[in-house]
Amino acid sequence: MAERDRLPGLIFAPVPEGKTVKNRLHLDFRPEDQDAEVSRLLALGARHVDVGQTGEESWVTLADPEGNEFCVLAPRRG
């Protein structure tokens, strides 16, 4: 089985309406290299967002181009 075919999978479908309220679903991603993944996502159109972080968090909060927030977590410590 190819890596891209692993489950669970997510499908993102565009909708005609804009975001009007807080997200009902919040995604957290845990890449092996947080800095590289944040850079990759920013290059694809994500942006940093302030949702009340203190600056001490081990995650980075971003939003997609439509304003949907998600976090990129630090790698798990063995």
From TrEMBL:
Tell me which residues make up the Glyoxalase-like domain: 5-73
Pfam families cross-referenced by the UniProt entry: Glyoxalase_6 (PF18029)
Tell me the superkingdom of the source: Bacteria
The record ties this protein, via Gene3D superfamilies, to:
2,3-Dihydroxybiphenyl 1,2-Dioxygenase, domain 1
* InterPro entries noted in UniProt: Glyas_Bleomycin-R_OHBP_Dase, Glyoxalase_6
Q: Which PANTHER family match?
A: CONSERVED PROTEIN, HYPOTHETICAL FUSION PROTEIN
The name this protein carries in UniProt is Glyoxalase-like domain-containing protein
Q: Which organism is it from?
A: Streptomyces shaanxiensis
